[in-house]
Amino acid sequence: MSSTQEQLKRTMTARHIMMMALGGAIGAGLFKGSGAAIDLAGPAVVLTYLVGGIILLFVMQGLAELAVNNKQARTFRDLVQPLLGGYAAHFLDWIYWKMWVLNIAAESVVAALFIQYWLPTVPIWVIALTVSAIVTLINLFSVKLFAETEYWLALLKISVIVLFIILGLVILFVSFHGHQAVGFANLTRYGGFFPNGMHGLVAAMLVVIYSYGGTEMIGVTLAEAKNPEKVIPEAARGTLVRIIAFYILPFFIIVSLIPWNQVNGVPESPFVTVFKLIGIPYANHIMNAIILLAIISSMNSGLYASSRVLYTQALDGRVPRLFAKVSKRRVPVYAILACASSLYIGVLTSLFIGSKTFNYLMGSLGYTVLFIWIIIALAHIKSRSPLNKQSNGTRTFPYATWFALLALLAILIGVLATTALIMTVITAIIYAIITVTYFRSKAQLTAESIAPE
């Protein structure tokens, strides 16, 4: 283990980064959280994912532009601090770190739930512990090996979603061997397309934003990307279309095939439910296995992202220097182990509250993704001010970014009004702690600078 500050190795290509962003975003939010979103919005959940996808498009355009115009940046802090100041950079860094450590804890429980589909007598915490150990070991190997593993896992789940879309469309529109084409009757049969009105749409937006969270991970790969000023915009463009397609089409198929008020009443993912309805032998088991790999892939990406944030914090002297040490393979081992500890906190939590762990954590994570996107949008707007005018820009500025910012603020207000109070309070406490640590460290630095020699 090196005791000096070694640089991370630039071994990640555009295909690695694009698949990592997909790996982070196509996980428990899609495969498990989808049931909660459908339960809140009904068939209109398709519209919520469309609106969320448009907002994501504009935010990612801004993030790509910030990366192009700050070629020395290593992570979000370096992109935001010159534009919005120290507090915004500190807040963004730590809520992003918090988002991923909570997310991988939540997904360890979700992975356990999918394994419990086959092993119903084994306690959730035992399975979650096993999965957590596997993900930790994968991240401790070289970055290139990690990136390759993540690439193929992400490719697998994308392939499955494509297969799901094809089979789903066939069942919707084609009659065969006694099967009658389902059509679109389920979209309006049970209370209409908007069964829960605008309240349901707004409430579902928190799940939607959480589900899309992870795409912005490309901002954390800056220090390990080859030619980041070219790779990051390419990865952003390639990721956006795929994520919107991989969410909207599957949700459209699910709410068309299954009455929306029956989706959230089953223990397995809606994807597994649909494959069971198709009647292909063992299809539900195959789908369950692939979804499990998809969630492990998302955990993999999350542990990567959170450890790199901690690593850069250590390099800058904001956390103990121990976390800046890297192995011979250029992997920040101590940062990975520290972040992996959250997996085991998730295991302990599941020991007491079981499968409800995911639902509790998802609410707080939705808030965090909202704030991350708001800060990125604000930084993009500030980067185009007369004092910070940048040379490379998106053609849709400022309209797209302002639309995204105002939409995110409106969603935040709506979510505050519709989300359980306990989730809001827990999130507010976490944010208050992050804020206090910033001003305490700033006051300490000020005191040290004026102290007599």
From TrEMBL:
Keyword Transmembrane helix listed: yes
Keywords in alphabetical order: Amino-acid transport, Membrane, Transmembrane, Transmembrane helix, Transport
Superkingdom of origin: Bacteria
Any one of the GO BP annotations: amino acid transport
Membrane topology: Multi-pass membrane protein
Gene Ontology annotations for the cellular component aspect, listed alphabetically: membrane
Transmembrane segments: 46-68, 100-119, 125-147, 154-178, 198-219, 240-260, 286-311, 331-354, 360-381, 402-434
InterPro entries: AA-permease/SLC12A_dom (IPR004841)
Domain Amino acid permease/ SLC12A: 16-429
Subcellular location: Membrane
UniProt name for this protein: Amino acid permease
Native source organism of the sequence: Sporolactobacillus inulinus CASD
